[in-house]
Amino acid sequence: MPIYRNQRLFSEHYLRKILPQSNKWKCIDEEKLKEALAKMQSLYGKKCNIIPSLKESQLEEEFIRPISRILGHIYTPHPSIRKMREGAREPDYAFYSSEEAKKKASIKRAIAIGEVKRYGRPLDRKLKGENLLDVQNPSLQMSRYLWLSEVRWGILTDGKLWRLYERETSKRIDIFYEINLEKLLKKGDIEDFKYFYLFFRKEAFPEFLQKVYTESLDYAEKVGEELKENIYQALRILAEGFLKNPRNNLTTENLKKIHDNSLIFLYRLLFILYAEYRKLLPLDESDVYTDTYSLDSIKKEIQDKMDHNLSLPRSQTHYWRRLKELFELVNSGNTEIDVPFYNGGLFNSQKHPFLEKYEVADFYTAKVINLLARSKDKAFIDYSSLEIRHLGSIYEGLLEYKIKVAEEDLISIKR
User: Fold this and answer.
1) Which of 158, 316, 368, 391 is deepest in the core (most CB within 10 A)?
2) Structure letter (DSSP) for residue 72
3) Distance of alpha carbon 77 from alpha carbon 73, whole angstroms
């Protein structure tokens, strides 16, 4: 499991695969990195017993400001935002690229703004019984500061959790990048520490963060385009699988039904791949779901067989039946293994009797799943980088295609 918590601000693929191979990662000054970790560990070691009991202002003085200085930050406390209504709370900090920029005393010159909460204060919800200034949802508060100040990046922390917010995406307050600094300092792993140091030090703002953010968006667009191509192939292979199963007793006269139900089946797969990556389904949270039912376990099994050139039977429908169990689970939900109830009709067996009656052999089903799960370089596609609009665009593109029988095989053609 990664040391960070990336709530869709960046691409998981970028963070896990591209960043560790980048010059930014490899060429970082190791001595400076070790020194920063040692200083933070020393600071935490001296303060860890009192941090949980500190008031917000004390936490800032005793821990947040020293950490910020170790990260190289130049800051002004309680900067003014002209658009704030009278009496409203200002952000706790404005961070600047230099002392000269700080002297200008304009928050528009800030590279980031910062907000501090007392240790352990939930960062995603309001609290009852507190004074009026503290009752707000901190994530919503950060979003508001970013929009009113027109600053691109925001840091929200309670000392333990450190979060990055980006102005445009902060409208959705559940989009952020988070590090548990307390856990990092206790563990002391220098490679894990890079995920904090690289993202929160002064030099990260704005060039490094902008690069990670932009390349994450580029990856999502690339994935979307590649998926469009893959899914057209998958549509053809799935339709062929229906026709080539002799037990189905289907002919080319059934092409319209085959086409329409293949679209439903493919969108089911897209939805589950997306839901598992986005933790809408309990992948890695429920052992029963992860090991017994998940599409993640199926795609990894298929990956292993294909990469080792193992044969996939044309007569058995093992994967098809496993998928039917998964579809039924998603349709009905299961509180025991934390699978929510989805009632949109997509997985309803009564609404799609064709998919209940007919089956596709493993040879074809495995190819379809592999096309949707892996990119051209054979890496698993990071569905967490995609938005619902990407899936909608892919599905709309599918609707423009229909299945036609060529002289030798099935083909998909644009209407």
Assistant:
1) 368
2) T
3) 12
Q: Where are the alpha helices (DSSP H) in 27-87?
A: 30-47, 56-59, 65-70
Question: Helix or strand or coil: residue 215?
Answer: helix
* Alpha-carbon distances, residue 41 vs 159, 191, 320 (angstroms): 13, 15, 52
Q: How many residues does the chain have?
A: 415
**Beta strand pairing call for 153-157 and 112-116:** parallel
Distance CA 184, CA 41 (A): 9
**Full-model pTM:** 0.81
d(CA 198, CA 209): 9
Question: For the residues of 93-162, what is the DSSP string, one character each?
Answer: EEEESSHHHHHT--GGG-SEEEEE--TT--SSS--SSS-TTT-S-HHHHHHHHHHHHT-SEEEEE-SSEE
Nearest of 338, 36, 408, 56 to residue 193 by alpha carbon: 36
141-160 pLDDT, tens digit per residue, is 999 999 999 999 999 999 99
Other Cβ atoms closer than 10 A to 190: 12
CA 260 to chain CA mean position, Å: 31
| CA-based nearest residue to 152, from 116, 75, 204, 100 | 204
Report pLDDT digits (tens) over 97-152: 999 989 877 888 899 999 999 999 999 988 876 555 556 899 999 999 999 999 99
Phi, psi dihedral angles at 164 (to 5 degrees): -110, 135
Per the listing, tokens 């549509």 go with 235
H-run or E-run covering 412: strand 410-414
What is the rounded distance in angstroms from the CA atom of residue 338 to the CA atom of residue 75? Answer: 44
CA distance 348 to 343: 8
- H or E stretch including 183? helix 181-187
**Which SS3 state, helix, strand or coil, does residue 49 take?**
coil
Q: How far apart are CA 182 and CA 186, in angstroms?
A: 6
Residue 29 burial class via C-beta count within 10 angstroms: exposed 0-12, middle 13-18, buried 19 and up: exposed
Q: Give, in degrees to the nearest 5, the angle at Cα 116 between 111 and 121.
A: 140
